[in-house]
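FAQ: What does a ligand-bound record look like?

Like this one, built around oxalic acid:
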Amino acid sequence: MRIAVCLTDNKPAPWVEGLQRLLPRATVAAWEPGAPPADHAVVWAPPQAFLDAQPQLRGLFNIGAGVDALLKLRLPPDALVVRLDDAGMSVQMAEFVCHAVIRHFRELDAYGQDSAQGRWGFRRPRSRSDFPVGVMGLGVLGQRVARSLGAFEFPVRGWSRTRRELPGMECFAGAEQFDAFLAGTRVLVNLLPLTPETENILDRETLGRLLPGGYLVNVARGAHLVEEDLLALLDAGHLAGAALDVFRTEPLPSDHPFWRHPKITVTPHTSARTLRDESVAQIARKIEALERGESIAGVVDRVRGY
Ligand code: NDP
Ligand code: OXD
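The answer part, i.e. the structure of the complex:
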């Protein structure tokens, strides 16, 4: 069995070594043009030439949770497309989102400014009941985030494509319940996959339906957000701020208005990083399972787009 590793912006050698150690009977190699076709591939943003050279691929393993970029390419028709299934990402996402929500709720940026000026002053405590948090996307990451926010006793609501029943939160589903979900949400956390249905979903209409003083945490994909609509709602005062980790263009260009906007916090697509050891172990286990003819979790529905 041949396994090809083809990673853009990532050194392949540690992935090759890790997979080879766990799958000693396989031949694992970083892909080069002209290499023999592989049975399984481990990829991030592979070139089309790599995919075109894989007529017999059985498993195409993406080293991230989001497959939006991969699905834009021409893929071997019979290969299973497999996303990372947590692999250490959900706890990172939970800590990142809880930090963003708590920083906003507890006004920690304002306290930071006071501290920089040597000022000792209190703000009036806010009530959690005034800060219902709505999580868009109740998958592997969204569910973990929602549970973690619940542990801090924020009222949590969730929205997904199909109906979910999750303890301790009000769940909404589908386009028909989107408005009801938004109308009771003040802090909106986006953890949707990027698909034709969800692109541009964070627009003036969606964000404008949040409770006044709304706050946006976008940790999914930049193309979910209509940037000028966010800026207009911040400047109009309907939204109080935004924590943005993902952008239409990454790296975020140095002249982009988000960098200097006083109500926006920018981080460089770092809310949940791919952890190599966990990911290699998960992919190796799944390759073995496929080779035994078993089914695996994390297989992407190419038509649905996630
Ligand atoms: P999952 O596929 O596990 O979950 C996706 C969720 O979104 C599901 O609950 C699904 O509904 C819901 N959903 C999909 N389409 C719609 C729709 N049209 N309307 C309403 N709900 C919808 O994904 P993950 O939780 O693993 O990851 C989510 C995204 O997070 C990734 O796709 C990626 O873009 C992003 N990400 C960002 C990272 C970062 O560092 N910033 C790191 C990792 C991921 P249903 O339950 O009904 O299927
Ligand atoms: C992912 C990401 O999708 O890092 O895993 O954005």
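Follow-up question: can I read anything off the structure? Yes, for example: DSSP finds eleven helices and twelve strands in the chain.
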